[in-house]
Specification:
heterodimer, A: alpha/beta, five-stranded parallel sheet, 15 helices, B: five-stranded mixed sheet, elongated, golgi apparatus (chain A), transmembrane (chain A), glycosyltransferase (chain A), signal-anchor (chain A), Exostosin_GT47 (chain A)
Amino acid sequence: MEIWRWVFIGFLFLADFIVKIEPFKLGRSQPTERISGSAGDVLEDDPVGRLKVFVYVLPSKYNKKILQKDPRCLNHMFAAEIFMHRFLLSSPVRTLNPEEADWFYTPVYTTCDLTPNGLPLPFKSPRMMRSAIQLISSNWPYWNRTEGADHFFLVPHDFGACFHYQEEKAIERGILPLLQRATLVQTFGQRNHVCLKEGSITIPPYAPPQKMQTHLIPEKTPRSIFVYFRGLFYDVGNDPEGGYYARGARAAVWENFKDNPLFDISTEHPTTYYEDMQRAVFCLCPLGWAPWSPRLVEAVIFGCIPVIIADDIVLPFADAIPWEEIGVFVDEKDVPNLDTILTSIPPEVILRKQRLLANPSMKQAMLFPQPAQSGDAFHQVLNGLARKLPHDRSVYLKPGERVLNWTAGPVGDLKPW
Amino acid sequence: MKLSALQQSYINRRSYSFRSSGPLDSSSDTAIKSPSAIFWLIFHGLCCLISLLLGYRFSRLVFFFLFSTNFYASPFRPTADLVRTLDVHSVLSNNPVANLHLPLINKTLTNSRVVVGRHGIRIRPWPHPDPVEVMKAHRIIEIVQKEQRSQFGVKDPRTVIVVTPTYVRTFQALHLTGVMHSLMLVPHDLVWIVVEAGGVSNETASVIAKSGLKTIHVGFNQRMPNSWDKRYKLESKMRVRALRIIREKKLDGIVMFADDSNMHSMELFDEIQNVKWFAAVSVGILVNSVNTDQMVDHKAEEENPRMPVQGPACNASNMLAGWHVFNTLPYAGKSAVHIDDRATVLPRKLEWSGFVLNSRMLWKDGGDRPKWIRDIDTLEGDIESPLGLVNDPSMVEPLGSCGRQVLLWWLRVEARVDSKFPPRWVIDPPLEITVPSKRTPWPDAPPELHANEKPEMGIQEPIEKHSTKRTSGSKRRSKRKHGTRTDTQVLTRHSEQN
């Protein structure tokens, strides 16, 4: 009988080994390349089982009622906060037992107070956030245990948790003092900036996946546009002379290349915007009032190499996605030489970038599909959170120890919401 | 107080508070207006009024002179640069009252090279396209497209062997150039076999030579007859001759027939790569109905579609069920018999150009050849259509989503038999014509220089007869009758050489 036991064990080893071999990807005729960032080949990691998230149940005035008041919040580029909440409520990483949770999520929709034009007003957001934190710290003991170090918040607004749309004002305010120890999941990312703190997770802005899916054209359509861009160059309403908007970079693009036949750039809003991107080799993604924009997501989905013109920007999931190998980075001061820079990229490099962009896990990581699919942006956020585990012993405060200053910040923020 | 004003004016996303936020925000949240704030307000208002008059931001100038310390921001230029110029300019540095913000910003922005505030718009000295860069970009685009084709286009494309019968006539240049350009665009390897009735001529050779394609130019020693019936027969013979050439040379690829008067779409060349042995595509027939439109429309509207199509017909399970052929009944008795007839030119029942062959079926050692294809050498007499090459017509493969896609069009437009044209369409020596126009608004120009136009008579004739368009862009001439030739005034005109 002994020998049969050994045969059985040998068979198990063999089966285990075979199962580990990569499943053959059928139906994908375009050769793609694996994406390895500084965190390794992690785009396809599965966070389920690696972390547990407890979702606080807040009164509906913090989330449902706000959404009811203005359902446009589901379609604009800050909609990630709402979809993340929905995803976590039904995700297998959610736990109902807070004692075993690694991370705590507070569903408060701070970017849903919209003007008639659809732009979010950040003026009440600090008070809303503060009120939510006061609520969770008084009703549950977990906030006070670590003063928020194992809590994460979604702040997809222009400058993240600085809660202002003007950069000068945002820098002046700084990150909300109560969020100093929490992990922030935000779209804004710029190195050495007040509004990006150490350990934040950058996510892409929300782009509607179904809308992009319906505008796909056959892949054999030849790419005949060299550089493509649609958008403002001068923000005439707020900065007519130029120089403030986009730090003058967009205006420089226009002035230098407006008569260049290789650059298909204009301020129009064509209905064939998505189709045109699929016929272009390079898509410009310059900064605007904030360095990030949904153009990056669109360029990745449509296979157009993004040309990022934003100094010191931190791109989404920067530790998992090797953006240097996928996109082209141009300093703002080099914008007048953009055509020389782009035409001097060797063709093999361009073809390689296109292969990396064609990788379906790359496209999936930029999207927030409903219902969630494996490898999408929700899962990348969870992967990022999982990589930060286990929490350091030092985040757990001794009873009675206080670090946060609850009265810091402008006087206006202290008013109750 | 200032804050609420900001909130109210949020219709513009970032309101014009940049300037107003300067001196007034120094006392940001306090509602008390200190005397300095009031002073700045009045001063600022004054500067605004002056700016309105002068047309540029006067306040900047004053502040620049008052606070001319060296900022960490972009370098500034003398005030002449305030007026926009097109050379590299750095506009005056950011809001000088950022001075007051400096200590605040400096302590929060540690070693960042990105600064907030106003930046210059960098323009290079010659902001126009550089032709070298443009060429490099086009090469990159070509490489990208080639890669796309190799991934999503046809895998392992086979050589396309094109058979074209032709002969020298007025419309030959028109038709042949059209076909030539279509063939030049085909991304696959191509061999063009041109069979010419009446022997090899320089005319045809000169047109073909411009293509840059691999061509085989062969002569056929009969001349083109004048009746359409006989012409079709001769063309069939010429095509079979080309097939024999393919057989001799053992060319490998896909044989298609491109008549020089046809129009081909680019998808056709991708679609024919799917042929295994013998395939058929749908051909759109553009019949140039002359004077028969009314008759045809009444009777045949329900039976015939507007533009008839010749090609394979499939049943519901996408198998070949029959053939769509051209219905000649409405034109019975009214079709053109000779070239010069002003009547409708009809196609044959099934045109050669709708069929595609695998060249291996023509080879002598027909080991691979299926049984239902005949050997060319066994053909006695002529064949009317390529279906004569197959024993079993039901084995023909339908292409173009089973004949539903029309990938090429048949159209026959020819000039009269006696129509002449300048050899190789080169007018040499230059024309010296003498035709006063009858109905133009321009008065007849006075006779200018000398008069010598005798040697050009031979070439003048046909041009006057047919009133074809002259190549030199000049006044339109009305139709001329023979009688008025005696009235010609002598003018000299030079027409440009082609």
